[in-house]
Fold:
Amino acid sequence: MSVAAVLNQAPWRDTASENVLSHLQLPSIDGMPDSLSYDVAIIGGGMAGLSAAQAFARKGASVVVLEAQSALALGASGRNAGILCAGINMPITYTPKGSRAAQLWSDTQRKLFEVLEEAKEESSLIDVKRVGAMCLATSKTAAARLKRETSARLGHGMTAELISPADAAKLSGEFINVKNVFSAMLLPDEGAIHPFTLIATLANRARRYGGQIYGEARVENIDKSPRGYTVRTVKGKTIECRAVVSAIGPLEAPTGRIFALAFKVEIPVNCPVWWDANPYIYYDYRPGNGCLTVSGGRYGNPGTDKFDQQYHSKMAEATRQWVPSLQKKEPDYCWGVDLHVAPDLLPEIVERGDNCLSIQGLGALGVLPGLVLGEQVADQIAASLSLTQK
Ligand SMILES: Cc1cc2nc3c(=O)[nH]c(=O)nc-3n(C[C@H](O)[C@H](O)[C@H](O)COP(=O)(O)OP(=O)(O)OC[C@H]3O[C@@H](n4cnc5c(N)ncnc54)[C@H](O)[C@@H]3O)c2cc1C
Structure:
């Protein structure tokens, strides 16, 4: 199949169980009364919004998630590359010291362990594998940078170790061609997650504690009201609430187009996730769920798919350099997503008013930061709502 012929979609829908898919379905807000009342309204049902929703619900708040789409997983959270990686979308050595984002390195590391632990529970839907991640340096400059990055991570209490190209090849079960690799940084705790399984888990937990999630509920207005806020959807529903969290995600005001593809291929069990340490040829590679999923690289212009084929072909070719067994194969999935990205984008919570917070800046690496910030907004607001823990 040629790259152009592949649909613009990620492999997650095809590789999720019926059970997981069923948890992503949403009732439409159309069936609800025109006026509703809750303690907290959360706008957006991605990782960040759902994380906030389950945290509020567990604290005893009555909470509603208003999702613009008709189902969950149609935003960035359901179209990402499925890498579960601590940190934010820049090296630790570039993260501004003392910033809230710098604190996110250890917070996301802690959250990573929580997700890995939760996945071990028998009833857990979460499909995650702690296979580790390798950052591979293909130049002397990149190798020097890796050395600095490894010490910085260790200095932050994170786990990282420099390994040889031969070790990298061995860890991958000789799946990866390391002939151009100078050195590698191994992050042993990182993993590959099936994004739908995490979204379904967060949504279920919010529902279990009484939270409600509605689809076709695009919010167009938030106004101050005597009780707190009046939130209005484009279809004319109003939600009276005491607090609002905006978690509309990185797709709403895109500045770039990010590309991804996946090859269906058999990969040695426990082959780590890997990426190239050189920022100019950066792609990341995520084995798992019967595929090698690849994302990243240069961003394209948002609002056009004219150059998708070029970007995807380049990405497929780069993959074949690492994995010679893919030489004659074309990707089975290719997709492109317009999103807000910038080299200095920092995940953050922005205060928009009393008990009105916005989670933003999640960009191209935001699963764990989204989970952390979602819980932090709930902590920040809950105290002033005097809730009773469930
Ligand atoms: C191709 C690609 C690969 C990526 N790979 C990775 C990766 O491997 N690992 C990683 O950690 N991160 C990755 N990311 C980034 C990660 O997916 C995002 O940072 C994260 O999912 C953002 O979560 P979110 O909840 O903020 O946004 P979203 O998941 O986009 O959720 C926001 C939701 O808000 C809804 N919404 C928007 N406006 C409104 C409105 N007005 N009213 C109601 N609802 C609204 C949207 O429909 C959407 O469902 C990748 C992203 C992309 C696109």
Remarks:
- Residues 279 and 326 are 24 Å apart (CA to CA).
